[in-house]
């Protein structure tokens, strides 16, 4: 079995190929919109959410070809959210994944339409027939899961809380409510969709994966806050220090960097405990959790 670095590179390459295949060609009308969709979706990103989907699929024995569909759907939702998040009416950023954001490279109206189109494409992809077939009830469950994770009870709702909370002091419970929705909902969707690619889950397995995803999602955000404060823009591939400059609540407004790193490590320990029932099949899930707290970008 390849080490984590080799495996993650292979997953990133696989996702690049799969997304390239699923995205409309630049030569297809409307050409400018399709060029912008490809600009934001290809050629960058850690692909953490797709890796989580593949790792969860591996834990339950799912066929990778089936997981690929779920992984692409989740990544398309994630990229749409980044495109909208960077708009002047939201976080107003001009750098993402080491290159100009969509509204800077193209224009604001195009960026808005790119997000809309990527969101639609995600559900088109997830509703397509899975290789080898997949029970229709399970596929419907997967579509509902991604819809909830993307909407007002998930990512969009968390983003709304983030915007409404700018300049306000949040306690830990309030901060984690925001991040469980803004970041954690789509991370949990990635994990569950990867596992559901093998069929419905029994209650114990699902509970373990949900607990893992909740802990990993929070740890991811804790480390994002730490890296935003400690790492330069060139390394991050996005503007460093933006949250602090905008007066947004972060983990570092509630604890020191050392305490935040320790908290993230505790969350990862809890995450690994939650998937212990899968034994060695959960190796990649454990490695991703460790990568999240050890990453430098």
Q: Explain this structure to me?
A:
By secondary structure, this protein is an all-alpha fold. The protein has helices spanning 4-22, 31-41, 48-60, 64-85, 102-105, 108-126, 136-150, 155-164, 172-196, 203-230, 233-236, 242-245, 257-274, 283-294; strands at residues 95-96, 99-100. The protein has one domain (4-294): Orthogonal Bundle (Farnesyl Diphosphate Synthase). 69% of the residues lie in helices and 1% in strands. It has a two-stranded antiparallel sheet. A hairpin with a 2-residue loop joins strand 1 (95-96) and strand 2 (99-100). Helix 4 runs antiparallel to helix 9. The chain starts with a helix and ends with a helix.
Count the domains: 1
Radius of gyration: 18 Å
In CATH, what is the homologous superfamily? Farnesyl Diphosphate Synthase
What's the total helix number? 14
């Amino acid at each position: 079995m390849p080490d984590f670095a080799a495996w993650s590179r292979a997953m990133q390459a696989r996702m690049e190929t799969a997304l390239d295949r699923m995205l409309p060609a630049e030569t297809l009308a409307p050409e400018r919109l399709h060029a912008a969709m490809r600009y934001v979706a290809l050629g960058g990103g850690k692909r953490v959410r797709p890796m989580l989907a593949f790792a969860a699929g591996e834990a339950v024995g799912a066929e990778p070809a089936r997981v690929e569909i779920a992984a692409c759907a989740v990544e398309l939702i994630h990229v749409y959210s980044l495109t909208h998040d960077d708009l002047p009416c939201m976080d107003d950023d001009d750098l993402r994944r080491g290159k100009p954001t969509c509204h800077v490279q193209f224009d604001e109206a195009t960026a808005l339409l790119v997000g809309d189109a990527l969101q639609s494409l995600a559900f088109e992809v997830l509703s397509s027939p899975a290789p080898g077939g997949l029970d229709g009830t399970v596929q419907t469950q997967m579509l509902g899961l991604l819809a909830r994770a993307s909407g007002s009870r998930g990512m969009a709702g968390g983003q709304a809380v983030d915007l409404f909370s700018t300049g306000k002091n949040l306690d830990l419970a309030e901060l984690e409510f925001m991040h469980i929705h803004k970041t954690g909902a789509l991370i949990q969707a990635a994990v569950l969709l990867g596992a559901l690619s093998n069929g419905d889950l029994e209650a114990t397995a699902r509970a373990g994966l949900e607990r893992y995803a909740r802990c990993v999602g929070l740890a991811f955000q804790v480390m994002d806050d730490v890296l935003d404060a400690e790492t330069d823009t060139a390394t991050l591939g996005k503007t460093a220090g933006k949250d602090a400059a905008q007066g947004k609540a972060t983990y570092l407004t509630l604890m020191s960097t050392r305490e935040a790193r320790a908290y993230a490590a505790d969350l990862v320990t809890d995450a690994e405990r939650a998937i212990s029932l899968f034994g060695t099949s959960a190796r990649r899930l454990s490695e991703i959790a460790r990568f999240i707290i050890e990453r430098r970008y």
